[in-house]
């Protein structure tokens, strides 16, 4: 019994909701932000963790990453064995599917783990421990080559991929938070609050940094209203440029044009959050 329990995947099954192109904004950001790191590796491995009831997101991840790093391989991992079996007809050169969970059952250390819409069903108190477990599986940094190591991208989006928020983490922990949207669907930046990842969604209250950030984002958006006559993209760029005067925006206008803004994690981290305070990683149940 002990051996069987120890071999069980770590985590619980998600609802499995997925749609083609749902994660396109996240994928394109990964290819742009992490493409050089993938190219540096002789055999880069990416993991689509919890891809859901259909394998579309893993298939699309392979295509988008190979546009930046042609040697990239992708492994889709699902905790539900029936979903793994259903995905097998979509396996191809550079893409396969495996049964597993947060233990990430692949050989070696992945250059990328993408966990989209996976942690929404967990309690906030569990998130830091899951992050630690997944970050421990990433390829390590290598100062000799300038490598910063692997990347974990964990976040949430709506059902058709119009609005995303994700956290990017390296082996050392959280680095940045990215907000991305289809600009034509946006009334105000704080509309993205409903897609905050689990580590932040309950912290959108007075006194928390993420609440102050979204408040300032809305104010900058309102101030940039005259630019709306030039289109939503120009209004967004003007808004982010103003926001960067008070917040550590980590990207440039080239990404802003895509309807994105990336901010240093330390500026938005919940009050009292520290990696050391996280509980032990969850065990199989």
TrEMBL record:
The keyword Transferase applies. The keyword Transferase applies. Keywords: Methyltransferase, Transferase. GO terms for biological process: methylation. InterPro entries: SAM-dependent_MTases_sf. Coiled coil: none annotated. GO terms for molecular function: methyltransferase activity. Residues 1-20 are annotated as: Disordered. Gene3D superfamilies: Vaccinia Virus protein VP39 (3.40.50.150). This is Class I SAM-dependent methyltransferase.
């Amino acid at each position: 019994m002990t051996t069987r329990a120890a071999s069980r995947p770590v985590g619980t099954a998600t609802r499995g909701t997925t749609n083609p192109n749902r994660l396109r904004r996240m994928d394109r950001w990964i290819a742009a932000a992490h493409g050089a790191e993938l190219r540096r590796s002789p055999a880069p491995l990416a993991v689509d963790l919890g891809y859901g009831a259909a394998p579309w997101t893993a298939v699309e991840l392979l295509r988008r990453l190979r546009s930046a790093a042609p040697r990239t391989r992708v492994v889709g991992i699902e905790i539900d064995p029936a979903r793994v079996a259903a995905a097998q007809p979509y396996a191809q050169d550079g893409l396969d599917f495996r049964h597993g969970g947060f233990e990430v059952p692949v050989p070696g250390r992945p250059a990328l783990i993408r966990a989209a819409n996976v942690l929404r069903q967990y309690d906030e108190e569990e998130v830091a421990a899951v992050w630690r477990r997944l970050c421990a599986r990433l390829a390590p940094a290598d100062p000799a080559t300038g490598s910063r190591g692997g990347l974990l991208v964990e976040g949430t989006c709506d059902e058709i991929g119009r609005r995303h928020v994700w956290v990017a983490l390296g082996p050392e922990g959280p680095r940045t938070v990215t907000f991305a949207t289809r600009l034509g669907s946006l009334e105000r930046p704080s509309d993205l609050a409903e897609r905050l990842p689990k580590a932040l969604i309950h912290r959108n209250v007075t006194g928390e940094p993420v609440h102050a950030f979204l408040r300032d984002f809305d104010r900058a958006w309102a101030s940039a209203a005259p630019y709306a006559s030039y289109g939503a993209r120009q209004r967004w760029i003007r808004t982010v440029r103003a926001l960067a005067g008070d917040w550590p925006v980590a990207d440039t206008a080239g990404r802003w044009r895509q309807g994105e803004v990336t901010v240093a994690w330390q500026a938005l981290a919940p009050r009292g959050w520290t990696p050391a305070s996280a509980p032990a990683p969850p065990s199989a149940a």
